[in-house]
Structure formats: C-alpha cells, structure tokens
Design brief:
The chain is an alpha/beta fold. It folds into 4 domains: about 60 residues, Signal recognition particle alu RNA binding heterodimer, srp9/1; about 180 residues, Rossmann fold (3-Layer(aba) Sandwich), CATH 3.40.50.300; about 60 residues, Helicase, Ruva Protein, domain 3 (Orthogonal Bundle), CATH 1.10.8.60; about 200 residues, Methane Monooxygenase Hydroxylase, Chain G, domain 1 (Up-down Bundle), CATH 1.20.58. It contains 22 helices and 13 strands. The strands form 3 sheets. It has a 5-stranded mixed sheet with strand order 1-4-3-2-5. A 5-stranded parallel sheet has the order 7-8-9-6-10. Helix 17 crosses helix 19. The structure holds adenosine-5'-diphosphate, magnesium ion and zinc ion. The site of magnesium ion (MG) has 4 residues, from helix 7. Its cofactor is Zn(2+).
C-alpha cells in the first residue's frame, strides 16, 4: 500500500467486495485497507468503518478475498502515527490485543470465529462494540431461512411492529419489547434475527453474550448502556443479543468472584435498560439462547423477554427446503435429489445442512467435476454424520427403529384409554438433548380430577413404549427410563395420596414436606405397610404393562405398519394419524381391568 492509497466510503467498499472486485484486505482496529483486483484497476484504498461490520470476515470469505487482521499500528497509511499519540495508541492496542487473545482462547483455537470477534476490539474499551450495518440492512430476508415456518410466522409480527409502528401506536397497543429465540445450536436463530431486521428494513445492532464474560468489572455494564442509547438514537431498530445465557445465567448462584460479579453487573444493567424503554419507541430486543433453562427468571418477567419463539430442528420437508436455499449458489448435477438427501439427514440442523452442501461442492471441485453429483452428497453426508455422531445427535438405524416402535407403542395404547386425552402428534425428529422422539397427548378439556380408570389408562400408555420395543424387537432399551419413572411416581401417588388401592382411603405420603424445625407432616408408617405399598405399586405397574403388551400383541400388524410410516415421514399428525389410531382394537379384558384393576 505504498502507492498512494485513496480514501473510500465504507458502503462503497462493501459494494466492491460484494461485486467481487476486491483482491486483498488488511483489517486494522480502526482502519481497513484494501486493493482492487488488477482487472478493476488495482487501486488501493483505505476506509473507516462507521461501525463494525458484523459479518465482514464471512463476507470476505464468501467472496474469496485474501485478508489479514492486524492489531498494531506500526505501518501507517496516512502518517499520523507518532509521539505521544503513538504511545497512547499502542497502549490501547495492547489492551485490544489482550482481549483479543482471550477471545481466541475461548473460541478454542477456532481462528475464524476468533477473528470475527477480534474485529470489534480496539480503542475505547467502554464503547459498545455492537456492530450495525451501514445501510440499515442486513441483506438477509425470510427467504434465506427455511424449515422454521412457525418461528417465521411469529416473527412476522415483529417485522410489522417495526415497519408499521404507527399503526399500533395510534390505536394504543403496547408493542412487545423482548423476544427470546430458543432452540438448539445451528437451527438459524441468528439468521432469523437478521432476517427480521432485513424484512423490516431497520438497523441491526448485535452483540454476543459471551463477549462480556471476559471483561473487566464494569465494562460489560457500560457497553450495555451504550448499546441501548445508540439503539434509541437509531430507532426503529433491532438490538440482538446472541448467547444470552452467557450473561443471563441465574444470579447469586455461588461465591462471588471476578467473573461472576462482572456478569451480574452486566445482567443487572441489561434488566435496567429493559425496564427503561418500551417497545413503542421502536426498539425491539431480540435474544437467542440454546439453554433457556439456566436463564435468570427475572429476564422472563412480563415487560422483559415475555415472548418466546421456538426454533427447532427441521423435519424432513424443512430439511429439503433448507437444502434448496443453500444449493442455490451451487451447480447441481442432474442426478441430485434433494428430497432423498433430506430423508438421509434426520437430526441435522440448518447449519449442518449448509455445511453439507458446501462439503459436497468441495468434494466435486476436488474431483475436477463441473457439477456436484449425488455421489458427492453421499460422501459429504458420511463426513458430516461422523462429525455429528461425536456430539451424539444422530441415531443409528437401529436406534431410530427402536424410537419409532416405542413412540407408536405409546400412541396405540393411548388411543384406547379413557380420559379424553387425544394423541395429536408423534415425532422421531430428535429434539433437544434428552428426547429422541415424542408422542404428544393433548387433553381435550381442562381436567382437575383423575378418575381411577384414567389413572390406569395413563400407566398403560406410559408403559406402551417399552412394551412395543419388547414385542417388535425382542429387546428393550434404556429409552423408556423417563416413562418408567413417571409411571412409578403415578402408581405410588395412587396408593399413598389418592387412596386408590386395597389399602383404602388412607394417606401414606412417604415424602411429605419437612418443616424447618425438622418436624414433618408424614404419618408414621410401619415397615409392613411400607412393604405393602411397594407391593401394590409394583402390582399396578405389572398389570398396566401386561395390558400394554396385550393391546400391542392384538394390534401387531398395525404397530408394524404405523412404525414404517413414521420411519419414513418422521412426523405423524392430523388425519393420517387419526386414521391409524381409529383402527386400534381393544382386547376383551381391557374394560374389566380399567374398572376394577
Ligand atoms: P444459531 O444462531 O441457531 O446457532 P445460525 O443462525 O448461526 O444458527 O446458523 C448458522 C448458519 O447455518 C446460517 O448462517 C445458515 O447458513 C445456516 N442455517 C441455519 N439454520 C438455517 C435455516 N433454518 N435455513 C437456512 N439456513 C440455515
Ligand atoms: Mg447463533
Ligand atoms: Zn416413551
């Protein structure tokens, strides 16, 4: 950059990168230098980002631009680096570099992400390093996000608040302030937040919760304050806090130490800011987390993050849509069947699918092909799956089969039981970390009392999963542990609290509340009675299990057929599900058991 570099406006620079005119970029803490490709004149420029571009690194990567990130100021382009000013600058830089190293450490050597966050660090520690998009646009729209239709629908409303705020204000409606996006990693939460800004055409100020954790006490709080005051000036706009759990963990958990103190101060500042503005000013706060359970309850109070949007892993058709989005920029061979790929990628999140398409394209290029073939996708799937299996998200075919039989077992048994619980959905798309599949039973009306026959029905339904595994595979798995726990608790309550056994209407609650002084409300129970309770609980469970087995043996063919459908479609609901459930036949002994046990 010795030949006189010329100044350039930042927005023009971004345009040039997007038009693939840029050859090489050097990113300094407060200046960006770049050179155009020879065919575009080869001229060098420098530009001052008005605000940090959140995605500069990925933008550069996606356009194949060479870039270097420097955190020193030793070479100068405009010759102002001297004397005391230079000393001050390099002091600032040392702080910057220090924070940057910490970030690199945290990212676990992930150079890409380390560099991404390193961009924001520079002079002015207290200043928020939230990044805005210069034109007020993220360039992302809902069309870029696929397979999460419900989330999009809910966020459409937020777009409307931002784009047509007056409509709501005129009529006196209160616009919500905070929306929390909850879902597993890589499902598109960050992408959705950007899409909301893109759709509404408003600025997007983002920062990541994890950026706060390593700061000195007080700095995080100052940044939050700064972030909100900037947002108010730019309204209507969106503030996005990624990884909210990093600052939003439940407070006062342990012995205070530096890190905790800092986090608590930051969280308190965030709560203060949340209370200090209202959605009608045109600022809407979005946040994302994949660990909602550890968030401080104060964050969820009305007037704070009172809306939650679930961003879940996509089902088969969702995966096909996501593949279509990411295949847009790739030349596909004639034999590529994206729907077939979608069926082979159960459990993949959007980010995994994006990664898959790219792996396949790399594979094709490595083999000097003109287009990506199905064979490339096959190989890429194996690679990605191998990576994911380590994180134990992908089921082996046998596991999937077990889960499918198990869930159908619940549903078929549940279909015969009294109590107006209707099975409405069965899914074997893995959700979260715990559940491999689930069967959704919705009560048709609110119920406050549980009748004895309904209780037996619930026991049999809970054990139907295990029974289906035993009948169809001849083997049982650990997958039923939660069902068994629930069934046991319920059977025990029936005896000890509801008086529904031959022990009669006596409360034998074994784990009643203890008072502070050590006394408890529990009645003294003799060893014989305790043993009798245990016997009775076991008896009810055995009977319920036997009934579940009897039902599934009688409906063996239906169990088989329904499981095959579920394995193919992953989700069963609505008409097709009800049609299956309507075919379940009741064994003759069912009615007597329900009434008399
Ligand atoms: P999260 O914030 O939930 O961890 P991201 O939004 O960061 O996930 O997703 C990372 C990348 O994966 C996105 O930039 C996009 O390329 C891809 N991706 C994830 N989910 C989707 C989706 N639903 N539709 C299209 N692409 C997706
Ligand atoms: Mg994210
Ligand atoms: Zn189960």
């Amino acid at each position: 950059m010795k030949t006189a570099a010329r100044p350039q406006v930042y927005s023009k620079f971004v345009q040039q990168v997007q038009a693939s005119q840029v050859q090489r970029v050097t990113i300094r803490p407060n200046q960006i230098e770049y050179t155009l490709k020879p065919e575009f004149g080869g001229q060098s420029y420098y530009t001052q980002p008005t605000d940090r571009h959140d995605d500069l690194v990925s933008l550069l990567q996606s356009h194949g631009v060479e870039f270097t990130t420097l955190t020193d100021t030793t070479t100068d382009t405009n010759g102002t680096n001297a004397g005391i000013l230079g000393l001050l600058l390099s002091l600032g830089m040392m702080l910057g570099a220090f924070a940057w190293l910490l970030k690199l450490n945290k990212a676990g050597g992930g150079v890409g992400s380390g560099m991404g966050s390193g961009l924001g660090v520079g002079l002015g520690v207290g200043r928020s390093n939230a990044r805005t998009y210069s034109q007020g646009k993220t360039g992302v729209t809902f069309a870029d996000v696929a397979g999460v239709d419900e989330a999009k629908q809910e966020l459409q409303e937020v777009v409307d608040f931002l784009a047509n705020g007056d409509k709501y204000r005129k009529i006196g409606a209160k616009i919500p302030k905070g929306v929390l996006l909850v879902g597993p990693p890589g499902t598109g939460k960050t992408l959705l937040a950007k899409a909301v800004a893109g759709e509404a055409g408003v600025p997007f100020l983002s920062m990541s919760g994890s950026e706060f954790v390593e700061l000195f006490v007080g700095v995080g709080a100052a940044r939050v304050r700064d972030l909100f005051s900037r947002a108010k000036r730019q309204a209507p706009c969106i503030i996005f806090i990624d990884e909210l759990d990093a600052i939003g963990k439940t407070r006062g958990g342990g012995i205070p130490n530096g890190g905790n103190d800092e986090r608590e101060q930051t969280l308190n500042q965030l709560l203060t800011e949340l209370d200090g503005f209202d959605g009608n000013e045109g600022v809407i706060l979005l946040a994302a987390t994949n660990r909602p359970e550890i968030l401080d309850p104060a964050l969820r109070r009305p007037g704070r993050f009172d809306r939650q949007v679930l961003v879940d892993r996509p089902d088969k058709s969702g995966r096909a849509e996501i593949l279509r989005v990411h295949a847009q920029g790739v030349i596909l061979g004639e034999d590529v069947d994206l729907d077939a790929i979608a069926s082979q990628t159960a459990g993949f999140a959007g980010a995994d699918l994006a990664n898959l398409v790219n792996e396949a394209a790399l594979m094709a290029a490595r083999n000097n092909r003109q287009a990506v073939l199905m064979a490339d996708f096959k190989e890429a799937i194996e690679r990605v799956v191998a990576g994911l299996e380590k994180r134990s998200r992908i089921l082996t075919p046998l596991e999937r089969q077990t889960v499918a039989y198990h869930e159908i077992g619940h549903a078929l048994v549940g279909a015969l039981m009294p109590g107006h619980h209707k099975v409405t959905k069965i899914s074997i798309v893995p959700r979260g970390l715990a559940a491999l599949g689930y069967t959704l039973q919705m009560p048709e009306t609110d119920r406050f009392l549980l009748l004895e026959d309904e209780l037996r029905g619930q026991l049999a339904t809970l054990l139907g999963g295990r029974a289906a595994e035993e009948i169809s595979l001849g083997k049982i798995s650990s997958g039923a542990s939660d069902d068994i726990q629930k069934a046991t608790d319920l059977a025990e309550r029936a005896v000890t609290q509801y008086g529904m056994s031959h022990l009669g209407p006596v409360a034998f609650e074994k784990n009643a509340a203890q008072f502070i002084d050590g006394s408890s409300t529990r009645r003294a129970i003799s060893a014989e009675v305790t043993a009798e309770i245990d016997r009775q609980v076991k008896h009810s469970l055995d009977q319920a299990y036997a009934m579940a087995l009897a039902i599934l043996r009688l409906n063996r063919n239906l169990l088989e057929a329904a499981t095959q459908v579920l394995l193919k479609q992953e989700v069963l609901e609505g008409e097709p599900l009800q049609a299956i459930l309507a075919q379940v036949q009741a064994p003759t002994e069912l009615q007597a058991w329900l009434t008399n046990g």
